[in-house]
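[09:14] KT: can someone run the structure on this one? pasting the chain below
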Amino acid sequence: MWSDSSDDGGGRYRSDGGRHRATWNTEDPDSLPSTVVNAVAEAKGVDGLALSEVLNDVVDPDALVRVVGSSPAEPVTVEFTLAGRPVTVDSDGTVVVEPAESE
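[09:31] RB: done, structure tokens below
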């Protein structure tokens, strides 16, 4: 069963227990980095500032915005791990945070 919530930045978050989904505003690509951080933080049950690593440690946020948020002709997917959680970001506005392997 999914539960829904939202943040102050307009992102929508859904959880099915282990997997968390968020949406970022594709018309505002600059919202992508904060949506990713907030989705991982929500999945871990902590504040975004309390994550064990920052987004800059694993991916350049500006490059992520350029690659995924540039309205490409073909769908784009970027995968990386942040704070021990596998993250998938799609150009359709979807962010999926998987549970850590040890969970």
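[09:33] KT: thanks! The first strand starts at residue 3 and ends at 6.
[09:34] RB: yep, looked fine to me
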